[in-house]
Amino acid sequence: DFAAEKHRPLYGKHVLVTAGPTHEPIDPVRYIANRSSGKQGFAIAAAAAQAGARVTLVAGPVQLETPAGVDRFDVESAREMLAAVEAALPADVAVMVAAVADWRAADLAEQKIKKDSSGEVPPLALAENPDILATLAKSPQRPGLLIGFAAETENVVAHATAKRARKGADWIVANDVSGDVMGGDANTVHIVTAVGSEDWPAMPKAQVARALIERIGQEIETGN
Ligand code: CTP
Ligand code: CA
Q1: Which atom of ligand 1 is the closest one to the Cα of 147?
Q2: Residue 151 CA: which ligand 1 atom is closest?
Q3: What is the pTM for the complete model shown?
Q4: For CTP, which residues are the binding ones (predicted)?
Q5: Could you report the per-residue pLDDT of 8-35, keeping only the tens digit for each?
Q6: ipTM
């Protein structure tokens, strides 16, 4: 019925969301990580499910409950996240909220690295991780609406505009992290599209999620 449809703007759509950090192992007991809490990505997955979508959530290591109606796949590293994302295709919409580690340890030590009695410090060589968003952008199964997130501390819209072009995303949700955002509950975002930037006021992450899902519904319905 009309009222139900109006409140389920993503009915029949498959929405793929990545969330959280990745952990990149150094040896069996150590890893490289970042401060992403996963809260914004989980809130977007929850809002998409509430909007009627089938939702696949690929989550890095986080301590969060799976939102109602969401299919969740847990991963650790960037390479595992890429594989899970590719396995989830096709998708109508992909929202890449994960704070994917840019680098991993070039070599994974099979045993715990031990301190050297001479005080010699072990070198940590890094290798670049695959860019999941850029890979999706070039995929034959590219989602119809491909959205990246970018946490920036300065020149937020300018950096996000460059990132949008470089990665081949349709939108970049630019996240101003100059304040205390990571791990917190509020967010100030700018939606950078092909035609410019939509500046949203600071709001709780759950509200950013609902507004973004509404904006996605509008895009799908009207094409802008
Ligand atoms: N991203 C990704 N795979 C990576 C790195 C980033 O899919 N290896 C995605 C993120 O999920 C996000 C977007 O790309 O949607 C932007 O991430 P960001 O870290 O801001 O971009 P980078 O190109 O890594 O630039 P920076 O040097 O600012 O970290
Ligand atoms: Ca990065």
Answers
A1: 15
A2: 20
A3: 0.95
A4: 102, 112, 130-133, 149, 163, 167
A5: 999 999 999 999 999 999 999 999 999 9
A6: 0.99
